[in-house]
Amino acid sequence: MKTFRIFIAILPLVLLFSCAKDYSNENGGSAGSSCKLSSIVAVDDITGRGVYAFNTRYDNTGRSNYVELYDSASNTADYEVDLLYQASDTIKTSSNDILVLDGTKRLKKLITPLDPNDPAGEKLIYEYKYDGSGHLVEKSLSTSTIPLALFKSIYTWTGGNLTRIESSSSLTGTKQKLLEVNLEYDLGKSPKNFIPIYPEGFESFLYVTSVDMGKPSVSLLKRISAVYFDDQGNPGTPIVTEISEAKFSSDGYLTEWYVSGSSFDALGLFTGRNTFNYKCN
């Protein structure tokens, strides 16, 4: 079996989702103090209304307890997950995922069913490692029956920004490059309390607002270029996303941007206008 196809096959069906509920209130002026991102909304350019959203709800202690992907056209949630805190280091979800945190409350391990319809079957096990500054530097994937790193992603940080990701496989016994992502930034702009953006993080994007997945980049993202490689190591056509027209609240929270080129729907990077809303203390 081709390793590239295996890599694609194990990506959760998050790729099918688009993101947004009518939480598309415009954030003018100050967003408030100690705010957390609560919704990412894809907005219709003509009507100005949210058409799909990725929403996160928080309890009165500030912990996320619910995540949904909401379709405003049908007024229904396409996908929803409850987060159940089992212990100081473990979160179980209503979708049968298990999130294990390290001593600093960062995500250390994500255990998810290979087949969502068979929660008792084979498990995919993602493990995350961070450097001393709190940046994600490595992600590996094994399974409940193959306790070896089948795939690995290495993250490179420059000046506090994630600038490169390289994913590779060892399924054939030798390292084989699968994916390379390069990210560029507007170094003059720094979103406050934003989320880390991992373009190949399909398995974890539903939880990026709920658990600590490492420090986000300090600067405003402006371009992503991703290239997949075939079994012979030949690069495919680059998948390029450009981000522009960013707007901020008066106290530095990102409230809007415009995405052109290829969309990364699994990350809330939807082609067209996106708005961001926050839950503030």
Task: Draw up the topology in text.
Layout: H1 3-9, E1 35-43, E2 50-58, E3 64-71, E4 76-87, E5 90-93, E6 98-101, E7 107-113, E8 123-130, E9 136-143, E10 151-158, E11 161-169, E12 176-186, E13 220-228, E14 239-248, E15 254-261, E16 272-280
Antiparallel strand pairs: 1-2, 1-16, 2-3, 3-4, 4-5, 5-6, 6-7, 7-8, 8-9, 9-10, 10-11, 11-12, 12-13, 13-14, 14-15, 15-16
Question: What descriptive keywords fit this protein?
Answer:
281 residues; single chain; 16-stranded antiparallel β-barrel; globular; mainly beta; Porin
General description of the model:
It is a single chain. With 281 residues, the chain is an all-beta fold. The chain has a single domain (3-280), classed as Porin, CATH 2.40.160.190. It contains one helix and 16 strands. The protein has one helix at 3-9, and strands at residues 35-43, 50-58, 64-71, 76-87, 90-93, 98-101, 107-113, 123-130, 136-143, 151-158, 161-169, 176-186, 220-228, 239-248, 254-261, 272-280. Strand 3 (64-71) and strand 4 form a beta hairpin. The N and C termini lie far apart (51 Å). The model is unreliable at 1-28 (pLDDT under 50).
Q: What is this structure, in a nutshell?
A:
With 281 residues, this protein is an all-beta fold. The protein contains 1 helix and 16 strands.
DSSP helix count? 1
**Radius of gyration, taken over Cα atoms and rounded to an integer in Å:** 18 Å
What would CATH call the architecture? Beta Barrel
Largest sheet: 16 strands, antiparallel, barrel
Q: Count the strands?
A: 16
Q: What is the approximate shape?
A: globular
Structural class: mainly beta
Number of domains: 1
Strand order of the largest sheet: 1-2-3-4-5-6-7-8-9-10-11-12-13-14-15-16
Mean pLDDT: 86
First-to-last CA distance? 51 Å
* Beta-strand share of residues: over 45%
At the third CATH level, what is the topology name? Answer: Porin
Helix content: under 10%
Order of helix and strand elements from N to C terminus: HEEEEEEEEEEEEEEEE
Return residue spans where pLDDT drops below 50 for at least 5 consecutive residues.
1-28
The CATH C-level name is: Mainly Beta
